[in-house]
Amino acid sequence: MNLDYSREPHSMFSVPFFVEQVDLDKIDFNDNPNFSPSFLSGVMSSLSGDSLTDESYEYLGSIISECIGRFSDKSFAIGQVWRNEYNKEDWQDPHIHSGAQWSFIIYDTVECSKTVFMNPARKEYMNQWGMYAQTIPMDFIPEIPSGGMIIFPSWVEHFVMSGNEGSTISGNIYLVDPPMGPQ
After folding, report:
1. Which of 34, 53, 73, 151 qualifies as a cystine partner to 18, CB 3.0-4.6 A?
2. What is the pLDDT of residue 183?
3. pTM score
């Protein structure tokens, strides 16, 4: 990489996020969800199993492909998809989506997102550069209205603040290696 010698900072370790508009009328499920308390917070979730219609997978796949296709030419598969139902006092504890490469959240009927993404290097920054918290963001709190979707690397730790009612649709995306040689 050729660096210029101006006094402008170089952003070297950025993390890609995509915020997209979705047509909620094109997101359909095959069956009624079986909601149960999940996660440490006990938020009602269909985490144990929910499935989209084939048309919905195709629709979401086209949006996801345009975004993550900039980083990899590998094919991908949308894995688990689930819904969370939030009451005003509901929240979710910090977590990642282990095993997947990308994840997404669709803000279905919530008024606005309450998801907080934590800087992956926040502990190091806070330990050594805490006084620079105004210059180096520790958190990313996007304001995404109903009908919006965020796609993010699955290893980015995030949580959900309380104060919102409605539902979200979440899912994991797995990069798939192409087959090697004749089958």
Report:
1. 151
2. 46
3. 0.88
pLDDT, residue 13, reads 75
> Quick check: 119 and 82 in contact, CB under 8 A?
no
At 142, is the secondary structure helix, strand, or coil?
A: coil
Instruction: Say how far apart CA 103 and CA 151 lie, in whole Å.
Output: 6
DSSP 52: B
Q: What local confidence, expressed as pLDDT, does residue 100 receive?
A: 94
> Which amino acid belongs to residue 143?
E
Cβ atoms of 108 and 33 closer than 8 Å: no
107 residue type, one letter? Y
Pairwise CA distance, residues 30 & 32, whole Å: 7
- Among 181, 128, 168, smallest CA distance to 22 is for 168
pLDDT < 70: residue spans in the chain: 1-5, 7, 9-12, 48, 130, 132-133, 177-183
Q: Can you tell me the distance from the alpha carbon of 80 to that of 183, in angstroms, rounded to the nearest whole number?
A: 27
Q: Sketch the domain layout of the chain as residue ranges.
A: 18-176
Return the structure tokens found at 101.
Answer: 């490469």
Q: Mark out the alpha helices in the chain (DSSP H runs).
A: 54-68, 122-129
User: What's residue 138's pLDDT?
Assistant: 84
> What six digits make up the tokens of 72?
């990899």
Q: What span, in angstroms and rounded, lies between the C-alpha atoms of 43 and 84?
A: 7
Give the integer Cα–Cα distance in Å for 17 and 34.
Answer: 30
Kindly state the tokens that stand for 159.
């949580």
